Known about the structure:
Elements (H helix, E strand, L loop, with lengths): L1 H13 L15 E9 L2 H12 L5 E6 L4 E9 H13 L8 E3 L4 E6 L8 H5 L28 H9 L3 H13 L13 H13 L10 H18 L1 E6 L4 E6 L3 E7 L2 E6 L6 E8 L2 H11 L11 E4 L2 E7 L4 E9 L2 E9 L4 H14 L1 E2 L14 H6 L11 E7 L6 E4 H4 L4 E4 L3 E9 L4 E6 L10 E2 L9 E6 L10 E9 L9 E5 L10 E3 L5 E5 L13 E5 L1 H10 L5 E2 L8 H11 E7 L1
Parallel strand pairs: 21-28
Antiparallel strand pairs: 1-3, 1-4, 2-3, 2-5, 6-7, 7-15, 8-9, 9-10, 10-14, 11-12, 12-13, 13-14, 16-17, 16-29, 17-20, 18-19, 18-29, 19-20, 22-23, 22-25, 23-24, 24-27, 25-26, 26-27
Amino acid sequence: MMKQAIFLLWLGAALPAAVPVWAQEQNETRVWVQIEARPTEAEADERARAYAEVFPDVAGYRLSSGWYAIVLGPYGTDVARLRLQDLLAAGMIPRDSFIADGRAFREPFLAPGAVPPAPEAEALAVPGPEMLPEDAPPAPEAAPAPLPDETPAEARRSEALLLASERQELQAALQWFGFYASAIDGAFGPGTRASMAAWQQAEGAEATGILTARQRAELLDRYGRAQAELGLETVTEEEAGIRITLPTALVGFDRYDPPFVHYAPKDGSGVQVMLISEPGDRGALYGLYDILQTLEVVPPEGTRSRTETGFTIEGRSADLASYTHVELAGGLLKGYMLVWHPGDDERMARVLTAMQSSFRPFGDRALDPGMVEMTEEQRRGMLAGLEVRKPRRSRSGIFVDPKGAVLTTAEAVAGCGRVTIDREHEARVVTTDAALGMALLRPVHPLAPRVTASFRSTEARLGSPVAVAGYPYEEALPAPTLTFGALDALTGLEGESDLRRLRLASRPGDAGGPVLDGSGAVLGMLVAPETGERRLPDEVSFALAPAALTARLSEAGIEPRRAEGSGALAPEDLVRLGDGMTALVSCWD
C-alpha cells in the first residue's frame, strides 16, 4: 500500500508536467523549477534521488557558483509558473523554490528520468472506472509528500540561500507568534537564533536554533494563514498622513471625525481602530493625553507613560481593553488606538505587534479640522462621535492641608467604585461621619493645592454676606464658580447647633464647597440639599459649622488652619481664594 501511495503521488506530481511538447510553441523559452542547491555533488545527488522517488522529472546541474542545483523540468514559462504554484500550495517543495532560466547551469550530474520509479510501483496499474465496482467508494486523496528533513549542517546550507526578504519574513513570523522581539532586519544573530530554538522547543523538535526547510515552510504557512484570518493589510491614509497595517477582516473604514479616522467593527468582531492625526505642539500633545483618558474606550486602569514627544495609554477593564500611541514630530500629532474585548487578548496581541511595527507617519499634513461639520463644542473637545466616560456624580470639596486632603460631603462618595479629585487624581476615603454628613479624602499621590482653607473661629453676624465656591454644574465647567448670599441663622430649622442656615440658591454640585465670609475665611461647608418630601424654598441652604469641621479634622490628624484677617476682600481676591481652595470630587462606578 505504501508503494501504491508513492505511485499515486508520482502520478499527481507528474500531471502538471504532462503537457505535450508539440502543444508548445517551438521557440518558447525553456525554464526549470529550482527546488534546492547543495555545496557538494554527493549531497546534491542524494537529495535529488530522494525527490525522484516522488517526481518523475528531477534533474541536477552544477552551477556557475560551484554549488549543485536540484531542479524539475524543463517546462515552458507558463507551465513552470503553474507547476511552481501547485507544488508550493501542496507543500511538496520548499517555500524558497523559484523559476530558473538555466543560464547558471553547467554540466548535469543527474539527467531527467535517470532514477526510475520503484519496480513495484511501475507494476501497479491505476484502475479505470470500468475496473471498479459500482458501489466502490471514491479513492482517498493522497496526502502531499512532506519535505525531506535536514541535519543542522544541511539546514544551515539551505538557509544560506535565502533572500534578505525571506529572512525578514521568517523573523516577522517568529515575532508574530511571540518568539522574537527585536528588529526585522534579516540578520540571523543570537536573538534570532534563540527565538528559532524557542519555536523548535515549543514544537517538540530539537532546539538547534537553525530551522530546517520543512520547519521554515511550516512556520511561514501558519504565519500566512493567521494573517489571512485577520486580513492584515497595509493601509495608507492619505488625508491623515499615516501608513499602518490593520486587521481588515475585523474592521472597516467608517468615517472621518478630526482628529480621528474611525474604523468600525466588522461582523460583530468587537474590534475598533482609530487613527489620530492633527496639527499641534507640546501643549496640544499634553491636552490630547488628558482628553483621551476621559473616553469610554480608554478604561482608567492600565499603564500610562508620557514624554515631551509622545505618549502611550493602556486601558483595561473586565469588558474592554485598549492601546493608544501618539507621537509629536514636525508640529504634527499622529498615532493610533486599538480597542478590543479582553477575551480576544491573544489574537489582538499579534494585531498590536503588526500595528506597532508598521506605523509610519508621512508627509507634512494632518487631518483638516474643517473636512466635516462639527459644533464648536465638539471642535473644542476634539471628541466628535466618541462617548466620553462620565462619573456617576460630582460634588465640591475643600482643600484642608498642603498635601491635598479634601473635605466633602458623605453623599459625594457613597457607593463609589473609585473617587477622583480634580478629574485625574485618584483618592481614597479616610473617614466618614454619617451623622454630620461629611467625609475626608486623601489623594493617592500628594497634591499641592494653591490655597489651603482657613477656618473662622468666631461667629459671623447674622445677615452678613457670604459666598459659596463650588461646581454647581458638576463636570460641565472647568473651574469653580462663586454664588453669593447671606447668613440667615446660626442653627438649622429644628435648632441643630452644627448647622448654619443660608439665604443662598445652590445646586447639588455645590455641596461640599466652602462657605466664605467677606475676608475669605471658611465659616462652613455647604451640605447637600434635602431630597425628602419636605420642599424648601430655592434660596434656603445649609452649611456645617466650622467648629464641627475642625473637630473632625483634628481627630483625623489634620491640624486645621485658623483665619487671621477680618477685613473685606475685593471681589476678585475672594474669587481667587475660592478657586484655589475648592476641589472637584467625582464618584465613578
